[in-house]
Structure formats: structure tokens, C-alpha cells
Write a structure and sequence with these properties.
Blueprint (H helix, E strand, L loop, with lengths): L1 E6 L4 H11 L5 E5 L3 H10 L4 E5 L3 H6 L5 E7 L3 H26 L10 E7 L6 H13 L2 H16 L1 H6 L5 H31 L7 H25 L3 H19 L9
Parallel strand pairs: 1-2, 1-3, 4-5
Antiparallel strand pairs: 3-4
Helix pairs in contact: 5-8, 6-8, 6-9, 6-10, 8-9, 9-10
Amino acid sequence: VPIAVMDHDQSALSRTFVEQIRAGEDLDLVADVDSLEEIEQLLIRGTIKAGVIARPAFGEDLLDQRGLRLQVIIDGTEPESGTFAMERVANRTETFATGVLGTLGSPAALLRPIEVSVRALYNPGLEPRVDLVPGLISMVLGLPALSVALALAHEREHGTLEQVLVTPISRAELLLGKMIPYVAIGLVNVVFIPILAIAAFGIPFRGSFGLFFLASIVFLFAMLSMGTLIGVFMRTQPAALALSFLLIFFPGFFLTGIFFPIPS
């Protein structure tokens, strides 16, 4: 998981702690930053999934056995990765503190609790529905592709496709004619489903709806092109249905990020 670190202490102990976070292959330290604004910009751009902030007097608190205070800011749009990073940082903080006190001959039991405060951008409560519903929207928008595949396979199965092909219309016009109604249906869903998600499930919408709408048009054409390709080559509806599930819906379970982090 890519992370960034902001070291407010800049002591020998805090720098050693940052190096311990860098060790291993589960956390990838991609940036050392100087301000909270930098962490937020990296999170918004998707460069990192978590930011770790070592507070001032980090080293003094440890040496005086006053405990350790860290803040971890995670990307609430993909809470699996952020929670993974938070747990690893907490474990390494405990290991680091125990090791330092052991070197000094102080019992680790005397150390006050390690405090790791967590702040999640976009989804402060890390509620599953805020992560689940947007992923389901993209899967619902893939349903018109299934309809296109079944419609073309149905015409081919019953011999009507050959009758249409002998008419004066071109093949491009035929394919666009098959796709445009489903694009229109999909665009209605693009408007209606987010409204339903906001009204019924309380999902926050952050960003430009216009950009979301334009990206959805591109997404719909891509999905419908896959459905068209399946419908052209499959001669029966059951075969088209099976291939649509394999090529459209099963990858959607993984590429939406609702069950597994997308980088995985």
C-alpha cells in the first residue's frame, strides 16, 4: 500500500521510526511531506492510500515513557487499503517502541498506551455502504451490455439478423442502431441511480457530476461494444449469456474494488 509520512519531530528516533515503516514489502513509502495539505492532495490524486503523521516530541515522549501519538489519514473511498496500512503502522509502532525501550533497559510495560488517531477522507465512519454502493452502480450500468448481447444472439438464433443485413443500411448503422437505445437507457440510469444512492442510502457525492456523466457515456459505449462483440459471435442466447457473465460481470466484481482492493 503506498503511503506518505510527515515527521513533525525530526529527531533521531522519529527518523529511525520512519525507516522502520519503510522496511518490508507491505507498505511503500512514496513521499516525505511537510504539510497536511500535501497529504490530502496525494490522497485526492490517488498517489497514496494513507498518510502517517508523527507529532512533535515523538522521540521525547518515547524516552520519557509518556506513550506515542500518531495520526493516520486514510483514503475512505477504498477503506480496505487504508485500514491495512493503519494496522501495519500500529503494529510497527508497538514493535519500534518496545525495541527502543529494550535497548535502554526500560521495561516496555511502563510505556503509556500508543495512541493512533485515524481520520478517513470522504468516508469518515468507514461505513461499508459508502464503498459498496458506488461499486454496484458501475455493475448496474453494465446490464445494458448483457441486453445487447442477448438481443443480437436472439436475432441470429431466429434468422432475422440475416434479413436485416440484406437491407440498404450499413453494418455500422446496424450496430449503432442496436447500441443507441441501450445507451439512452444507461444514461437514464446514470442520473437516476446516483440520486437514489444519495436519497436512500445517504451516499455523499464529491466532485463534478458533469465529469461523472461524460465518463459514464464512455463507460457505457465500452461495455456495449463488448456486449455487441459477444452477440455477433455467439449463435445462441444461452451461450451469449454465459460469455457475458464471464467477460462483463465477473471482472466487475474485482475491478469495482467493492470486495478486494483494485491494486491487488
